[in-house]
TrEMBL record:
Listed GO MF terms: hydrolase activity, acting on carbon-nitrogen (but not peptide) bonds
Annotated protein name in UniProt: Amidohydrolase 3 domain-containing protein
Species the sequence originates in: Fonsecaea erecta
Listed InterPro entries: Metal-dep_hydrolase_composite
Length: 114
């Protein structure tokens, strides 16, 4: 049982995911007889990710589309709104989703200034 599954359109809550031969074969329904059950309560399944993020420029977006990758998730944060608009208007590039300038936490270090 998985707490939630995002299928690209909807979030499915508390559902069963059946995996056969390393591929998802069914979402929902009852657990098949004799199946190995892995309880993933509290987890979210996001199937289909190949790489969770990339660092790409215009040439790499064109190359990605050439290999059938339709959308790239850029986490470096250097794309301006204007640059992303240019990319979205071109049909020879993979679509770009950018995190802009995200925030993260760091470990605070105590350093002497003396």
């Amino acid at each position: 049982m998985i707490n939630s599954v995002f299928n690209g359109r909807d979030i499915l809550s508390a559902t069963t995911v059946v995996v056969s031969s390393a591929m998802i074969s069914r979402v929902g329904g009852r657990t098949p007889d004799g199946a190995t059950v892995v309880d993933e309560a509290g987890c979210t399944l996001l199937p289909g990710f190949i790489d969770s993020h990339i660092r790409a420029g215009i040439p790499q977006l064109g190359l990605a589309l050439g290999f059938g990758v339709m959308t790239e998730l850029e986490m470096m944060g250097f794309w301006t709104t204007e640059q992303r608009s240019v990319v979205s208007e071109r049909d020879d590039l993979a679509d770009l989703r950018a995190a802009n300038h995200g925030l993260t936490t760091t470990h605070q270090m105590s350093l002497s200034t003396i």
